[in-house]
Amino acid sequence: MAAGPDDLDARTDQAPAPVPLLSPRDPYAGPVVDPLELTAWAERFAGGSADPVAIDAERASGFRYSARAYLVQLRRADVGTVLLDPVPLGDLTVLDEPLARSEWVLHAANQDLPCLADAGIRPRRLFDTELAGRLAGLPRVGLGPLVENVLGLHLRKGHGAADWSSRPLPYEWLTYAALDVEVLVELRDAMEKTLREQGKWEWAAQEFQALVDAPPPVPRAEPWRRTSGMHRMSDRRSLAVVRELWTTRDGLARRRDLAPHRVLPDTAIIAAASARPTTIEALVALPVFSGRVQRRHADLWLAAVDRALRLPDRDLPPVRSPGEGPPPPAKWSARDPRAAARLQHARAALAELSERVATPVENLVSPDTVRRVLWSPPEDGTAESIGAALAERGARPWQVDLVTPLVRAALDAGAPDS
Question: Is residue 100 a contact partner of residue 124, using CB atoms and an 8 Å limit?
Fold first, then answer.
């Protein structure tokens, strides 16, 4: 059985104060804005070693509608660190083949891989230091805490939430960006050692490969249902108002390339869906619509509300989107008491397993996967069919091996004669 992180914690508990890492050890290049210079860097990465390459990307998700990368940082030991500006470069496709020779080392890879793919580069192998920290059971897996805990270095931080779409980028931001890849490979090597000591290296290898093989994300069928505060909407007409305002906001945000919440906050959408104003005066009387920016677009928002209010009943959205899978766990007892018993048993068993192997439950297996299998279990209830059901829903082989016995026991606990 895989070991926990106790040995690592014991080492780090006795570690001296972290050493400040305030600037890169070697000068970094860039930001590169000339395609010819980018080609020269591609040639550098194509030559030399095939050692791991540290990669990071900076976005402006709190400011822009687009999820594109506004800065990409690369570091390989024999090449050094270079910062690339995808805005004037257009794309980074010329780097795709040169970088394919190396394992990519990223922190929180699922956040950066989509924008890097949009820029024209994708990994063939990777190591995710954040995911490694989660599997190892470390309590804090942000890049700064992980570097401090594992390497004894204190990274200069503070610009992660900045507007990276602004130009020119300040020197302090560029230094911050260069530091993000400065010790990633060192961190990777230390985390591999820890995972091997804990008997979890195969787990990590399968997780990393799953990130490489993951298909592009599929857009949600009804993204407006994720509006914050939706739980307060209990009738279909109010939901229609939310949908119309969300869709109108999304179109305006896309055209202006602004983060949707900067165009109209979710609180405003929910307030309008609750009040259902029919005049401009009633709309701007709502606190969130009284500001100058919202008053400027008051006609647009009122028209969206009016469309929702005029919809025939047959066109109103259902209270719950069809095909969403099992009901919320809180409703299982009323809908299917035996399924609720299965879920309670599985949750307790997974919590015990999580503590025993020092890995968060959500990394042992997706909670949604477990819920779906428990709500609609295989008819024969065999280990083989349960494992197949878990794998069909995305569980990796190591997860199937660990979780199948627990799910089978939960199905037995919820059986009619149990």
Answer: yes
What CATH number belongs to 6-213?
A: 3.30.420.10
User: What pLDDT, in 10s, does the model give residues 313-352?
Assistant: 999 999 887 666 898 899 999 999 999 999 999 999 999 9
What span, in angstroms and rounded, lies between the C-alpha atoms of 134 and 141? Answer: 7
CB atoms within 10 A of CB 24: 18
- CATH 1.10.150.80 residue ranges in the chain? 223-315, 329-413
Which regions of the chain carry the CATH code 3.30.420.10? Answer: 6-213
Given a cut of 80, whether residue 415 has pLDDT beyond it is no
DSSP string, 38-57: HHHHHHHHHSS----EEEEE
Query: Which pTM does this prediction carry?
Result: 0.89
CA distance 341 to 374: 10
- Three-class DSSP category at 105: strand
CATH number of 223-315: 1.10.150.80
Cα separation, 124 vs 212, in Å, equals: 6
pLDDT at 11: 47
What 3-state class would DSSP assign to 387?
helix
